[in-house]
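re the bet — no i am not wrong, look at it urself. input seq straight from the record:
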Amino acid sequence: MAKSDMTRTLIFLAILGIAAGSTFSASSLRTSNGFGRTKMLLRDTMTPSETFNFANQEFFLQNHPYMPNHIDAKDDQAIHCLRIRGGSSGTALENNLSINFKDSSAFAPARGAVHTKFICTLGPKTQSVEMVTKLIEAGMNVARMNFSHGDHEYHAKTIANIRTSLSKSKRMCSILLDTKGPEIRTGMLEGSDDILLEAGQDFVLYTDFSKPGTKQGVGQSYPQLPTSLQVGDTVLIDDGLISLTVTAKDADSVTCKVINNGLLGSKKGVNLPGCKVELPALTDKDKSDLEFGCQQGVDFVAASFIRKADDVLEIRKHLDRHGGERIKIISKIENQEGLQNFDDILKVTDGIMVARGDLGVEIPGEKVALAQKMMISKCNIAGKAVVTATQMLDSMINNPRPTRAETTDVSNAVFDGTDCVMLSGETAKGKYPVQSIETMVSICREAEKVVDHTQTFAALRAYAKNLGPELINEAIASSAVKTAFDLKASLVLCLTETGRTARLVCKYKPVAPVLCATSDEQVARQCLVLRGCYPMVVGSMVGSASLISRCLATAKVNGLCKVGDVCVVISGMKEGVSGGTNVLRVLKIE
């Protein structure tokens, strides 16, 4: 780039090297993660091989169903102020006291970008190309396939429909394979009707899974049941709807007393709260499903019922053996053993899912919220993606509006620091799938307005004071976020080969959006679980000065930046080399 085209560099910080580059800018990124209708017209500032995909973020708010067609400078400033409100407050209490409902405008829908990411489960109601497109336009970042249901042919069709939709819309969405996992289930009943179990009666669980179920007992799939249970232990059937207490056992059966009336159906789930279960990390079905995922090129695997670090390592080895080395593993914590071994699991996994459904059966329900806060906080400190899942808007399976408790639950997940929130039955089989994701986007947008970003940054930075010389990338990332706060930068741009730099920047929860430029499409898709990250796919990572120039020039042409905006840029001295991030720059457009 010619000198005459270069703008003035405000601050230039290089660690382990000095980088030269042009100065560019970015603007306040007015995006809407929900309600598609993208009006982004890329101009001829990019080479034909470079495609920028802003991960289904809507950079222009025109035609938004809940937005005016134009946002003036005053409104834009108000949006920016809302998003950093509380930034100077010293405590969470002071931040909450700054929330004001006296002005009538306080009740208007929130506007602007949504940093939280959204996972939607696809099912019979949403498998078609048309419905997938609607969900992506409404805000879906990750499409989840539940392998507890459907065969490979069904899921292959779902994946094909997702990719067809994406090819038409030029948007971005990642694909997550959720394994069935090792589980215990009752066998088939003798007849076709459910059996009424009555409180006080005896009921026998047999180790012979093929034994037909009657009012006196039923077979179940866990051969080691008698050795895992002790007299006095609790057994829960069908998500805890039927509760049993163990009264006796022998080599082939466990006799229980029924605690409450309930209808028993065929093949219902069995939970053993507080008991150590000797089940394999991978069943034969799981192995087959993972191999299918490798063949299909999925981006994530959500591994069910992870109990210890070795379970994750076994899944990693199986994926690696079948060409899935680049697939990220999200470990689902669903039982007491998984909670007790959480620190070890976190060290070896790529992400965590707080799977509150089975977890709420395996541990006392009142402890689920505590477990959620603990897991989210530890993931935030480790800089690993965390998903909050199960029953978030469960009532919207049948109703067009959520309960007030559900909206509060979603908001609290955002306040806790979750990267993603997930919809299950709401989008897989519900009556209002599109309304469900639109509602979740709106709730998260409101919640993010009052998040105290600077306090969060300070708390996270306190855990990274002694990084050491081997963690240059993280030192640069945290410094970039601190600089963005200090200068009220409207954009953080990071150039990354593997997505690690973007993950480290997002770890420190900047107010400004993080634009992640990478030449790897799968890396870009895998950034869609990072809160605040907006990935872009470029043709090549060689020539950082030219790449930054084209990135920000394109953003400027499309109204994403304006004269006077500040942008923080982080990159590496060795272009195209993974792990080489060591340069931080602050750029301004004049």
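see?? The chain is about 35% helix and 20% strand. told u. also Residues 1-89 have pLDDT under 50 and may be disordered. so pay up
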